[in-house]
Structures are given as C-alpha cells and as structure tokens.
Amino acid sequence: MTSESPQIHLVLGPPAAGKTTYARELAAHVGAILLDSDEVTERLIRAGLNLAGLDPDDRDSPAYKTAFREVVYETLFDLAKSHASRLPVVIAGPFTREGGEADWPGRLESRLGALPEFHYVWCHPDVRKERIKARGATRDLPKLADWENYVATCRESAPVFPHRWIDTSPNHSNSTSTGK
Known about the structure:
Layout: E1 8-12, H1 19-30, E2 33-36, H2 37-51, H3 62-84, E3 89-92, H4 104-112, E4 117-122, H5 125-135, H6 141-145, H7 147-152, E5 163-167, E6 174-178
Helix pairs in contact: 2-3
C-alpha cells in the first residue's frame, strides 16, 4: 500500500452518451480497474426483478429505483473503496440525481477516502436514441417505446460541481474542464 490518496475517477451521464466506452479508455490510460454499473450488477438486478415478478428489463420505474438504485451505487462504492488503496479505479454509471447535488463530491470523498475526479459524458438525445437502437438491448425497449417521456427524465445539464465535460457527439472531440 502507498500513502498516496487513492485515485478515483467517476464517469457519469445519460444512458447511451458513451460512458462505458469513455470509461474503458480512461481506465486503460490510467491503469485502473473499471467498475461499470451495468457490468457489475446486471445479473443480480435481473434475478431480483424476476424474483419480484417484475420486468427484468426495467431500469426506469419507481419500483426499480426504490429496490435497486441505491444498492447498485453503494456496491460500486464498496468495490471502489476496497480496490483504490492498491490501484486507480474508474466508476461508470448515470448518477442522474447526484449530478445536481452540490454537496455530493464531499459526501463521496468521505465515503471513499478520496475526492473523485468527475467526468461528465454527454451527447445530443437524438444521437443517444440512435445508439440505443443500434445496441439492441432488450432493457432499452421501454425507453424507445416512450422516448419523449423517457428523455425528459434524463439529466441534460452539466453537474453542479467541478468536472470534465466529454461531448461524444459525432464529429465532436471536445473535452473541457469546468470549475463550477
């Protein structure tokens, strides 16, 4: 173990903005372990939803959010904390509500033992819709079936705390830091 502060990067943004792709590249660049919310918890969520008699593809209903949202995030934070003392960690997930909470970075610093570097990944909703169609995941079908209502629930504004803005729109290679 080193006496250095753990290096933790948190990648957040709306579904299909390119969080996982960006997080994989970032993890490779900094030599980090990647903890993606979908990869880490997908099988357990599907099993839990099936056991509860709910749609295993649901990720947006109040029932899903009540039963799984906080547990998924806490699992990611537990894993990050247990690994960050040995190597850098990249956490990827939507963190929609948290992007609007000015005190979230401080709470995470207390929780993780280090202040994460935040990366907000975004692209236009029309691009995200096409990406969701292209990936063909059954868990995305409810989003596509009611796209206008779904996209209204996505956080389109930048986080209210300092972060790096990553725009993954086609023909747009922009990464900027903001000290909001």
